[in-house]
Amino acid sequence: MYMLSRIVCIVFVLAVGAFAQTVRPPRLALFFKEEWKHLPPGGGDPAHPLEHPVTVGVNANPDLDLRLYGPSSKDIQLTGTGEENDPMHLWTGLCTTNCGAALRDKNNYVDLTGLARIRWVTKVSGFHKVRPIVKLADGTLLVGDHTDGSSTDWNETEFSVADVRWLRINPEKLLPEGNFVEKPDLSKVDEVGFADLMPASGHGPGGWSDLARIEVYGKPVKRAGAEKTQ
Cα(68)–Cα(208) distance, rounded to whole angstroms? Predict the structure, then answer.
């Protein structure tokens, strides 16, 4: 009887341990989503009326600010018809150097530790790829080794931030620097966005990146002195 009781206890302990190992924390809630404003034709180039220079106000989410990176980042265009096969998106085709853009929540940093993830809709041409960039609370800008982009069609993908390795990147030149950063502090991230680390080829196939919808899943961390956006 004593031996049977011991066996039962051992089985119970093993079962509890196995259950504890399989229990995972819940997935994190949506921190922000951006799908870009639907602007009518009549942009800066009469030959390409759907294209609009990316300036303040092209993002549809009023709680976000858009930041541009790279020497030719002001050449990033907002374009698209808003239809499923041509959603509103940022297009890097006119960038003559590396370029990128990031979004900043006005009221909160975001904690991208744990099960934080990014989901976005992208399309590319040539050898171009879309990479994540993050700006930390101390001003450090990082670029990740994760890449996305299908030249066939729009592609919705999701990845865990914990799987990404990061390099420091110069915010003016948007060029990576040094070796991979060991265990960067992603508990208070100021901005999240994308970078294209190749010069583009202009209109037509050859080389460019598109970023349509972007979603960031993480924990909000209140900014000091931030007030709720009306």
Answer: 16
